[in-house]
Specification:
29% of the residues lie in helices and 13% in strands. The protein has 171 residues and is of the alpha/beta class.
């Protein structure tokens, strides 16, 4: 006797429809741009007034790339260990106190935001000794091209998989 499995009935999540007011506004903007070449009636009025004064105007003649201003962010390490005293450091007063110490960051899920933060901290303070202790050596993305350990190696971080890093780490 053979049994056939029925395919799972997965519902596709549809985007929430726009309200009629927003639909009309989007349609007006699209029609405005298509008919006049400008994004708004104000821009069209401005250009007509300037041309009436004898100015030749070019609308949106270039795209200028820019860098979004930096945001001041903070990184709070899981553990800071002093290899000289073989003790965890309970409190740190300044960044300078971290030099010569080992920063341990424990990770279960290592998200893209966590990876970016680690890279930015390393760029900002290249002399800090940041090490990762991963719960598992999972794939970084669903594409399965790189594992957590490979990412750490590629970005100059020491790493360990499991809850007990080797004793050599603390010497």
């Amino acid at each position: 006797m053979t049994t056939t499995k029925k395919p799972l009935n997965k519902k596709k999540i549809k985007p929430r429809p726009l309200s009629p007011v927003k639909q009309r506004a989007q349609k007006r903007k699209r029609e405005q741009k298509e008919s006049t070449g400008y994004r708004s009636g104000f821009e069209q009025t401005f250009i007509l007034n300037m041309e009436a004064r004898g100015w030749e105007m070019a609308y949106e003649p270039i795209r200028i790339p820019f860098i979004e201003p930096e945001k001041k962010r903070h990184y709070v390490p899981d553990f800071v260990f002093d290899p000289k005293t073989k003790k965890q450091v309970p409190s740190i007063q300044s960044i300078d106190d971290l030099y010569g110490k080992i920063i341990l960051e424990n990770k279960g899920l290592f998200s893209a935001a966590d990876r970016l933060k680690a890279k930015l901290v390393k760029q900002t303070y290249p002399r800090l000794d940041i090490r990762f202790v991963f719960m598992r050596d999972n794939w970084v993305t669903k594409a399965k091209k790189q594992r957590y350990s490979q990412w750490a190696e590629a970005n100059g971080f020491k790493w360990w998989v499991g809850s007990c890093p080797p004793e050599e780490w603390f010497k």
